[in-house]
Design a protein that fits this description.
Number of domains: 4
Oligomer: single chain
Structural class: alpha+beta
Order of helices and strands: HHHEEHHHHEEEEEEHEHEEHEH
Distance between the termini: 67 Å
């Protein structure tokens, strides 16, 4: 709103909005402004001179409209309401700051929008977010466009076509299969482990596969193809909603859901288990030994076991156990020489 070069843009009719903006930016629960200070900041920021009487009337109107304005004798007034309280804002800023699905510019833009809901004094605590461009992030600047097109395709019950990115031996982005165009019936957009995924059904594999949204390029809506309803896809027939599907697919891999039994050797492992599997995991004891039953996508559970094999032992099902043992043997062979 700042406009020092063109002070005539604002008239006294704007006073209520300008008073609210000054309170939002420069006051909080511990920082108060007198009416003279409000008038001075409005003049500095917007080139408009307001009398104390006008400011007092604006404050009264803002209170009548439900804004949470408090008065402190000899100190002035402050606006204590915020779209987000400080802890909520910090949580959201940290989420955006650490997300690798966003480019550095996108992340910084969102962070600044969140910071604008706070007072200037409060935003000083989040200067680290200015370094969001330094984090290893996606190089795809089309993430938000991808999300918009996928949402539109779902609303219109249409398929989408897109190219899918990979990286060459020099670390440069390139297209999979020399620019092959993937066709998919979009099922949902889901967030998992700090990444955004498109769940899409493909006839070629007769299955639902996951695609990183930040790896999708040149996406478009296929107007001639009708989207397949979720209840007609095998992967979703046993689910009431997408949340249950996500809980069973911790790494967004395709493949069947299995029931597995694990032995636990360290009780502290339960923290990791419940973090990953939540209610899909149940713990029990037999003969002073600890066991766990888990429901999960088989491929996802395999990779989880590879990450935490030093803490647990897979007992069943036998095919998964054999797969883990074979992978362990291959790892040992790699290190023999």
């Amino acid at each position: 709103m700042e406009n020092k070069q063109n002070p005539t843009k604002y008239s006294k009719k704007s006073s209520i909005i300008l008073v609210l903006e000054i309170l939002r930016r420069f006051s909080d629960e511990t920082t108060f402004l007198t009416q003279n200070e409000i008038a001075q900041k409005i003049f500095e920021q917007y080139g408009l001179k307001l009398e104390r009487k006008s400011i007092a009337a604006s404050l009264k109107t803002l209170e009548d409209l439900g804004h949470d304005i408090i008065y402190k004798k000899a100190h002035g007034v402050a606006l204590v309401e915020r779209m987000f309280n400080e802890s909520e804002a910090k949580y959201l800023i940290d989420l955006v700051f650490s997300s690798r699905s966003l480019s550095g510019n996108h992340a910084l833009g969102i962070v600044n929008k969140i910071k604008n809901t706070l007072s200037i004094k409060e935003t000083a605590y989040y200067d680290y977010a200015e370094n969001s461009k330094e984090i290893n992030r996606t190089q795809n600047k089309e993430v938000f466009l991808n999300i918009e097109i996928i949402n539109d395709a779902i609303k219109q019950n249409k398929w989408v076509g897109f190219k899918y990115m990979t990286y060459d031996e020099d670390g440069n982005p390139s297209f999979r299969f020399n620019g092959y165009v993937f066709h998919a019936s979009p099922c949902a957009l889901v967030s998992s482990q700090g990444r955004y995924y498109l769940l899409g059904y493909r006839y070629k594999y007769n299955s639902v596969n996951s695609y990183r949204v930040d790896y999708i390029k040149d996406i478009y809506i296929m107007e001639e193809r009708e989207r397949i309803p979720l209840n007609e896809l095998n992967e979703f027939k046993d689910y009431e909603n997408i949340t249950q599907y996500i809980n069973d697919h911790i790494y967004m891999f395709g493949g069947p859901i299995i029931e597995a039994t694990l032995e636990i050797f360290d009780p502290h492992t339960l923290t990791y288990i419940y973090d990953w599997f939540g209610k899909n995991a149940s713990f029990y004891k037999e003969n002073n030994r600890m066991f766990l039953k888990i429901r999960s996508n088989g491929n996802a559970l395999f990779y989880w076991l590879m990450q935490y094999s030093h803490l647990v032992k897979i007992l069943s099902p036998e095919p998964l156990k054999t797969r883990v043992i074979q992978a362990a043997k291959e790892i040992i062979e790699k290190y023999k020489n």
